Amino acid sequence: MNDDASKHPQTLLITALAGVGLLLFLAAFLGWIVQGPEIFLTMAENGLAWCM
User: Fold this and answer.
1) Torsional sign, CA 49, 50, 51, 52
2) What is the separation, in whole angstroms, between the first and last Cα of the chain?
């Protein structure tokens, strides 16, 4: 009989961490989409846009 009970907490932890990482990535990406033009215009006004 297989005893896979010890693998479930580790799998659950990895899945939860991956989900949290994905949510953080999506939040950062959406923030960049929303604020990106303002950041670029501010950098262009200061002459820093072409240093990126």
Assistant:
1) positive
2) 59
Type of residue numbered 28: A
How far apart are the C-alpha atoms of 48 and 16, rounded to whole Å? 39
pLDDT by residue for the chain (52 residues), tens only, comes to 566 656 678 888 999 999 999 999 999 999 989 998 898 888 888 877 566 5
Dihedral (CA of 28, 29, 31, 37) sign: positive
Residues 6 or more apart whose CB falls under 8 angstroms from that of 43 comprise 49, 52
